């Protein structure tokens, strides 16, 4: 599946309350030359979801994304392997979801360092959208395609 997204660096979380907030823990590790991400999503009702993702860049705003739900034991095995790997990464973030018409803005607040990134997934590169005022008020700059603002970096 293709994922087309734009990313923006924000000064802070928007003041506007989000429609939903997810607690996300992501683990990255290279497996057979490919960077693999396993994600644990904790929903507000305390239910969990476990997802394995492999993303391949197509261009600065497009990724080929292979994403599958996995069982908790597969997730736990991956995390254990990450803890023993020479190269692995961990990210803990809160995802604040804002709906603006047909667009879903995901604002990620990173828990281990001072960083807030807003993302908008789009159906096409030509998709016209309006940035909600509560997001534009906090906007510093667009960071789409800048490697230092990817989760892996």
Task: Please specify the SSE layout and strand pairing.
Layout: E1 2-10, E2 20-31, E3 34-42, E4 48-59, E5 62-69, H1 72-84, E6 88-100, E7 103-110, E8 116-122, H2 133-136, E9 139-142
Q: What does this entry look like structurally?
A:
The protein is mostly beta strands and 153 residues long. It is 11% helix and 54% strand. It has two helices and nine strands. The protein has helices at 72-84, 133-136, and strands spanning 2-10, 20-31, 34-42, 48-59, 62-69, 88-100, 103-110, 116-122, 139-142. An eight-stranded antiparallel barrel has the order 1-5-4-3-2-6-7-8. A hairpin with a 2-residue loop joins strand 6 (88-100) and strand 7 (103-110). The longest helix has 13 residues, at 72-84. The radius of gyration is 16 Å and the shape is globular. The protein starts with a strand and ends in an 11-residue tail after the last strand. The model has no long low-confidence stretch (mean pLDDT 95).
């Amino acid at each position: 599946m293709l994922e087309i997204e734009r990313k923006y660096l924000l000064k802070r979380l928007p003041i506007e309350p989000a429609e939903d907030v997810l607690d996300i823990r992501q683990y990255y590790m290279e497996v057979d030359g490919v960077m693999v991400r396993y994600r644990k999503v904790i929903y507000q009702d305390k239910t969990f979801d476990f997802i394995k993702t492999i993303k391949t860049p197509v261009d600065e705003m497009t990724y080929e994304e292979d994403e599958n739900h996995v069982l908790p034991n597969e997730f736990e095995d991956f995390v254990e392997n990450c803890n023993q790997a020479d190269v692995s990464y961990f990210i803990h973030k809160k995802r604040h979801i804002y709906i603006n018409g047909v667009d879903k803005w995901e604002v990620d607040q990173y828990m281990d360092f001072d960083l807030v990134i807003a993302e908008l997934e789009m159906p096409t590169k030509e998709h016209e959208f309006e940035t909600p005022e509560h997001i534009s008020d906090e906007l510093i700059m667009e960071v789409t395609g800048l490697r230092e603002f990817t989760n892996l970096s």
